[in-house]
Write a structure and sequence with these properties.
The chain is 22% helix and 31% strand.
Length: 138
């Protein structure tokens, strides 16, 4: 994490991307344990198939956690003012997710200089899986 300055950050600047290893069953099991989300569609292949899916798939909140990591590698978590996402696609086993972000606005609010970011996860095919935005104080 580098010390950022409001005056040097510009609209259009991008955050250093966060590239993750392919999603696997171990990652899903570990996240289920850490989050307390043991929904069987994420960890039980038989359950997932009965639900009409070819296999288990990643928790949406796992993708949000990765975006949180993207943000906190750019700024200290204490600078985060807003963080929201929308799930737009399923992250399947084997997907190699890359998290990206871009500055889309600079503004002042509550006596702070802030920037708004567009953030997303996308798989190795460039298909967005989660999109959102965040506001950070600089």
């Amino acid at each position: 994490m580098t010390q950022l300055n409001y005056d040097t950050v510009q609209v259009g600047d991008t955050l250093p991307p966060l590239a993750l290893p392919p999603v696997n069953r171990t990652t899903l099991a570990l996240f289920a344990g850490a989050s307390g989300d043991h929904n069987p569609v994420h960890i039980d292949i038989d359950f997932a198939r009965r639900a009409g899916m070819p296999d288990v798939f990643a928790h949406g909140m796992l993708s949000m956690a990765w975006l949180g990591r993207l943000l906190t590698q750019w700024v200290d978590q204490r600078q985060l003012r807003q963080f929201g996402v929308r799930f737009v696609g399923i992250t399947h086993l084997g997907h190699q997710i890359t998290c990206t972000g871009r500055v889309v606005e600079k503004f002042e609010a509550d006596g702070e200089k802030r920037v708004r970011l567009e953030i997303q996860t996308a798989n190795q095919y460039g298909e967005p899986r989660v999109v959102g935005d965040a506001v950070v104080a600089l």
